[in-house]
Amino acid sequence: MAKQIRNIVVTGKSGAGKQPRIDVLCEAYGLTQLSTGNIFREYLGAWKTVREGVDATAFYAGDGFVPDADIEAALAPACAGTDVSPAAAALGLKASRYVDGGVFVPDNITNELLASAFNAAGGKGLVLDGYPRTSDQSRFLLDLVGQAGTPLDLIVLVDNEDEAIVGRTTGRRICPNKACAKVFHVQYKPARDGKFCTACDTEVIQRSDDTEAKIRTRLAEFQNKALPGIRVLEAAGIPMVHVPGNLPVFTDEAVKASVMDALAPVLEG
């Protein structure tokens, strides 16, 4: 009998091919993807909705911020009449201080954003994508799932070689329609006529960070920060399975088979 799945972490180098494997997991086990990229966009969007006329610097306190209660109280009037809560606006304000400055968002802010989205989603039935990326984030996640009473069941590591990732990622094209966001590749999965999304007909684009220099920087980040974080989860007793990111034949059926075959020894028992 297959074990019940509560939460899964999917990790791997940027461009390793995580999304197709996440799609398999969500469909096969009825899970929901919780992506840090989407979480950041959601909260930054909440702040953008209410920020007009608000002096964000009034909430800065040295390298940190004034108490959350003070920020939320001050933002409450701006949030009135919108679908944005003061708590969501406050989280977006914090993140924007770093994103707008072009620097990495500190772990404590990222953890706040993740925890808010994780708890809002009920803390179970989730595929965590893009988190954790550091050892501190891994330790925070272990505490978070422990408090929710729905521990992590599995780490899925999508394996791929650096040079294969560089070639694959520089050729990636995405649909900019947020309701679609379908992913293509100029060689392996071309868009219609090389230009248009096959699902919604929007003209596809190349992400600004899909250049070779930026890709190699992300590869180094995974090796130096994310991988040690995964070792923290492993040390806590969470099993890890390796799923190949490169396949001889790249079809939906081949991807699904490779994922299910890798998970079977751990989930069947």
Helix fraction by DSSP (H/I, runs of at least 4): 40-55%
Q: If strands are numbered along the chain, what order do they take across the biggest sheet?
A: 2-5-1-6-9
CA-based shape: globular
CATH H-level superfamily title of the largest domain: P-loop containing nucleotide triphosphate hydrolases
> Structural class given helices, strands, pairing?
alpha/beta
CATH architecture of the largest domain: 3-Layer(aba) Sandwich
What's the structural domain tally?
2
Number of strands: 9
What's the rounded overall pLDDT mean? 91
Query: What is the C-level CATH assignment of the largest domain?
Result: Alpha Beta
Uncertain runs: none
Strand content: 5-15%
How far apart the termini lie comes to 6 Å
CATH topology category name of the largest domain: Rossmann fold
Which series of helices and strands comes N to C?
EHEHEEHHHEHEHEEHEH
C-alpha Rg, in Å? Answer: 20 Å
Number of helices: 9
Largest sheet: 5 strands, parallel
Give the oligomeric state of the chains in this entry, treating copies of one chain as homo and distinct chains as hetero. Answer: single chain
Describe the 3D structure.
The chain is an alpha/beta fold. It has two domains: 1-31 and 125-161 and 215-269, P-loop containing nucleotide triphosphate hydrolases (Rossmann fold, 3-Layer(aba) Sandwich); 37-122, no CATH class. 48% of the residues lie in helices and 14% in strands. The strands form three sheets. The protein has a five-stranded parallel β-sheet with strand order 2-5-1-6-9, sandwiched between helices. It has a two-stranded antiparallel sheet with strand order 3-4. α2 packs across α5 (107-120), α3 (68-79) crosses α4 (86-99) and α4 (86-99) runs antiparallel to α5 (107-120). The longest helix is centred in the C-terminal third of the chain and has 24 residues, at 212-235. It starts with 6 loop residues before the first strand and ends with a helix. The model has no long low-confidence stretch (mean pLDDT 91).
